[in-house]
Design brief:
The chain has 14 helices and 17 strands. By secondary structure, it is of the alpha/beta class. The chain has a 7-stranded mixed sheet, with helices on both faces. It has a 4-stranded antiparallel sheet with strand order 13-14-17-16, covered by helices on one side. It has a two-stranded antiparallel sheet with strand order 1-2. A hairpin with an 8-residue loop joins strand 13 (323-326) and strand 14 (335-340). Helix 4 (95-110) packs parallel to helix 5 (129-138) and helix 12 packs across helix 14 (389-406). The longest helix is centred in the N-terminal third of the chain and has 21 residues, at 61-81. The radius of gyration is 22 Å and the shape is globular. The model has no long low-confidence stretch (mean pLDDT 96).
Length: 407
């Protein structure tokens, strides 16, 4: 493991050397998707150039090689999460797909009329809408944990919401809008005291080092690989083996079956029971390259760098007149959402893009959260380990110019 050096790290990501509108790219939209190191790009090219074949079904050499590479990724994900069994690792299309799987499989089996599902005010739409749909279908009730003005969950209110009718708690590990790091271990413990399972949306967490699913004792954990420097179109659902075995498949088709007749179908064993059809094989194999890459990094150095970057950016932004940060939790990841008084977030986003600065503007798929703060949307700068203080300076300079133009 080499000691962390941001300038060395940046050389691994080819897109960071390009220009946008004639300016050096300042990529601060990592909460939406992270950029890819060259090793991940090379893996995708290599698969399609030399290994392309379907998996699990062929006896020929290419199929066997692709199957081995794909299943090796599953084992690497198992180790990354410290899962007990590789069968607990289910490949999905992404975080959204994983949540929908549990809502439709666990939810349809376990949620009945009058039951309750608990989520939080800060959830991404992906962790709201699937539960709304199953609650509507089952005539169940969706309960919401409120937050305080700093963007932190009010745990005392969560304790009041837990009841004998609660069937599952589903919440984000880190808010994609506020950067709030939620006390998920405490929430899991509280839920488990009443035998309520917990699903964690880890989409924003996995880019900031690996969660330990056994240490958390979490029941379901979902995330997308494109958030952690891997390919798009692939994600992971971790589930405790006994729970996954107890619930029905989400989709039907090839690979998720043992036998099929017109009278009856028997389902395959884990993990294949939940993996119907041909998956995103290239992305699955390239995920191994992403995991190898991040596992070789100096995460202690990265944590220090990201903490300093967040503090520096927060200080600089607060010095801009009329700018207000939305979400100032005590425990926070390197995400900053803010508004500028009297100026629409979209207008600022468009102008600073002309200066090469990429940020996200809007409601960030968290419209109920925007309503909680009484705003339509924010400007969001989300940082990762390849960002620098110099890029923060460029952001501040671009913001000042945009505000002067729009004021």
């Amino acid at each position: 493991m080499k000691k962390f050096d941001v300038n060395t790290i940046r050389k691994d990501f080819p897109i960071l050397s390009r220009k946008v509108n004639g300016r050096p790219l300042v990529y601060l939209d990592n909460g939406a998707t992270a950029q890819k190191p060259q090793v991940v790009i090379d893996s995708l090219i290599n698969y399609y150039s030399h290994e392309n074949a379907n998996i699990h079904r062929g006896v020929h050499t290419l199929s066997q090689e692709a199957t081995t590479a794909y299943e090796t990724t599953r084992e690497k994900v198992q180790r990354y999460l410290n899962a007990e069994h590789k069968e607990e690792i289910i490949f999905t299309k992404g975080t959204t797909d994983g949540i929908n799987l549990i809502a439709n499989s666990f939810g349809k089996q376990n949620i009945q009329k009058g039951d309750e599902v608990i989520i939080t005010t800060m959830e991404h739409h992906s962790n709201i809408v699937p539960w709304q749909m199953i609650c509507e279908e089952k005539e169940a009730n969706l309960k919401v944990i409120p937050i305080n003005d700093k963007g932190e969950l009010i745990l005392e209110e969560f304790k009041k919401l837990l009841s004998p009718r609660t069937k599952i708690v589903a919440l984000t590990h880190i808010s994609n809008t506020l950067g709030t790091i939620n006390p998920v271990k405490e929430i899991i413990e509280l839920a488990h005291q009443q035998n309520v399972p917990v699903l964690i949306d880890g989409a924003q967490r996995v880019a900031h080092n690996a969660p330990d699913v056994r240490e958390l004792d979490v029941d379901f954990y979902v995330f997308s690989l494109h958030k952690m420097f891997g390919p798009t179109g692939i994600g992971i659902l971790y589930g405790k083996k006994a729970l996954l075995e107890s619930i029905p498949p989400y989709q039907g088709g090839g690979d998720m079956i043992k036998t099929v007749s017109f009278e009856k179908t028997t389902y395959n064993e884990l993990p294949h029971k939940f993996e119907a059809g041909t998956p995103n094989i290239a992305a699955g194999i390239a995920t191994a390259a992403a995991l190898d890459y991040i596992n070789a990094l100096d995460w202690e150095g990265i944590h220090k760098h990201e903490t300093e970057l967040l503090a520096y950016a927060t200080k600089c932004l607060k010095e801009i007149d009329g700018l207000k940060i939305i979400g100032e939790a005590e425990q926070k990841a390197s995400v900053i959402s803010f508004i500028v008084e009297g100026i629409h977030a979209y207008d600022i986003g468009v102008i600073i893009d002309k200066m090469g600065v990429a940020v996200r503007t809007g409601h960030h798929c968290t419209q109920p959260l925007m309503e909680r703060f009484g705003i339509l949307g924010t400007i969001r700068a989300s940082f990762t380990f390849y960002n620098t203080k110099e890029e923060v300076d460029l952001l501040i300079s671009a913001l000042q110019k945009a505000i002067k133009m729009l004021a």
